[in-house]
Recover the amino acids of this structure.
């Protein structure tokens, strides 16, 4: 039987679940790296070729209970616009951070992976609107053009809790 050239990709769940102290784990799909060579894709700045891979690893890491899935690195040191776009894509997928290989990347990554003041304010408003509705005996409410219920309020509370624990 032929062994996989990407055993860690197949074992992301097992790696994340190996010990309770595993907090940071994710898919590293940098240009020209081990994963590109092993899988055979052709890296692009847009990351379309690794979207499914990053999604699969993210789901494994989340299923194992690791609290901070981190995306791989951005190797184009001076391409901060490309870094931002790739980081935003990873945040949209559900990653909570990314590896940085250069000091110039840190401010961009901090900005992308931190909730904006507008996101924080919306979370506060959403919780207040739902709590008012619940006080009237309602389980959901129309909020800024969307239906929201306790599930959305739980997510909003998690955003606020995470932000309150973030180092300054």
């Amino acid at each position: 039987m032929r062994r996989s050239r990407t055993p860690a990709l197949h074992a992301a769940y097992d790696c994340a679940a190996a010990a309770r102290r595993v907090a940071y784990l994710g898919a590293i799909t940098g240009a020209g790296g081990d994963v590109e060579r092993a899988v055979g894709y052709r890296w692009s700045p847009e990351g379309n070729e690794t979207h499914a891979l990053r999604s699969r690893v993210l789901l494994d890491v989340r299923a194992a209970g690791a609290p901070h899935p981190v995306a791989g690195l951005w190797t184009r040191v001076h391409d901060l616009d490309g870094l931002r776009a790739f980081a935003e894509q990873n945040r949209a997928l559900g990653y909570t951070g990314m590896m940085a290989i250069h000091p110039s990347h840190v401010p961009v990554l901090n900005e992308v992976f931190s909730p904006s003041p507008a996101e924080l304010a919306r979370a506060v408003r959403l919780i207040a609107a739902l709590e008012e509705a619940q006080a009237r005996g309602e389980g959901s409410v129309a909020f800024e053009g969307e239906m929201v219920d306790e599930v959305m309020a739980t997510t909003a509370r998690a955003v606020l809790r995470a932000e309150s624990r973030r180092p300054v």
About this structure: The chain has a mean pLDDT of 89. The radius of gyration is 19 Å.
